[in-house]
Specification:
Oligomer: single chain
Structural class: alpha+beta
CATH class of the largest domain: Mainly Alpha
Number of domains: 2
Distance between the termini: 35 Å
CATH architecture of the largest domain: Up-down Bundle
Largest sheet: 6 strands, mixed
CATH superfamily of the largest domain: PhyR, sigma-like (SL) domain
Order of helices and strands: HHHHHHHHHHHHEEHEEEEH
Helix content: 40-55%
Shape: globular
Number of helices: 14
Strand order of the largest sheet: 2-1-6-5-4-3
Number of strands: 6
Strand content: 15-25%
């Protein structure tokens, strides 16, 4: 555990077992908080606060078989506290129409306005039933997480607990100190809002198959050679290109190709290191910073369907690289 409250005696008998019990739930709690908050950094903060509160109150906790439920109650309260402001996170396409490639980038919008990417390794289970694993990956897709942000916080918690985590209505009611009828009503309203948000479901398979591996290999080769004509051939006719913190977003191969050869020319010569984020293949992109050296510039999340790329989402936040486990610099 990164930090513990000073009021906790970590040398007392059983402290190591308590820590192990709490840490066993960190990954799933991080996934829950990420869906609630739309930010990996905020999710990590929320989980750490959850762990601290759990340490502070562990002596008063009764019924160890319900430890998971108790931690989710704490995490939910932490998230609800963090969501008291009016700001909701979004994607560029949620805020306005696409634009031509030569449009001004516009001012950099503050980080708290955007749904941020999240490394799969921090939120998704590593084993289990294949169908459940696929559902878990779907539930952290950028479009789904962005759609969740349209919900009031308590409705958001209800929908995640009921539809994603498959809790029973009475369990959710107990967690939120409300009635089953209230939970069912909140879930019905949340479902209606999510249906109206028209989530884009053309993001392809949740597991990388042979066709997708070939597509990704061709993308990496074309991008590192900066062969824009080859990149364009890999794009779906309705492919979307986003680049937070800028609000500008593009639609279609023609505009994306024009951008790469225009305002985006600065990423020529980049190197890509593979990872995964939001249930999709992803890359850490490093741009040249000197002779033989490269510096972080973007985490790319790649969405695809039917053998073509449907989404190229570049998150221009070098601070994400550490969270994804990548170095701050690439040397020769």
């Amino acid at each position: 555990m990164p930090s513990r409250p000073s009021t906790v005696d970590t040398n007392r008998p059983g402290a190591s077992a308590i820590e192990a019990d709490l840490e066993a739930h960190r990954r799933e709690l991080t996934g829950y908080c990420y869906r609630m908050l739309g930010s990996g950094f905020e999710a990590e903060d929320a989980v750490q606060e959850t762990m601290v509160r759990a340490w502070q109150n562990i002596d008063r906790f009764e019924g160890r078989s319900a430890l998971r439920s108790w931690l989710y109650r704490i995490a939910t309260n932490v998230c609800l506290d963090m969501l008291r402001g009016p700001q909701r996170r979004a994607r560029p396409m949620d805020l306005g129409p696409s634009a031509p490639a030569d449009s001004p980038l516009g001012p950099m919008v503050p980080e708290h306005a955007w749904v941020q990417p999240m490394a799969d390794a921090r939120v998704l289970p590593t084993d289990g039933d294949p169908a459940e694993l696929a559902a878990s990956r779907e539930s952290v897709r950028l479009a789904f997480v962005a759609a969740l942000q349209h919900l009031p916080p308590r409705q958001r918690a209800v929908l995640i607990l009921r539809e994603v985590l498959r809790w029973h209505a009475d369990e959710v009611a107990k967690l939120l100190d409300t009635s089953v009828a209230s939970v069912n009503s909140a879930l019905q309203r949340a479902r209606a809002t999510m249906a109206a948000s028209a989530i884009d479901d053309t993001t392809g398979p949740t597991q990388v198959d042979a066709e997708q591996r070939d597509l990704l290999a061709r993308y990496v080769e074309a991008f590192e050679r900066y062969d824009v004509s080859s990149i364009v051939k890999l794009l779906h006719d309705e492919a979307a290109f986003t680049m937070p913190p800028y609000p500008l977003w593009l639609r279609g191969p023609t505009e994306i190709g024009r951008f790469y050869l225009g305002q985006g020319i600065g990423c020529r010569g980049s190197r890509l290191l593979a990872t995964s984020a939001n249930g999709c293949p992803a890359f850490a992109a490093y741009k040249p910073s000197g002779p033989g050296t490269y510096e972080p510039w973007a985490i790319q999340v790649i969405e695809s369907s039917d053998g073509l790329i449907t989404g190229l989402h570049h998150f221009l936040y070098p601070e994400l690289f550490e969270a994804f486990g990548f170095p701050a610099r690439l040397e020769p």
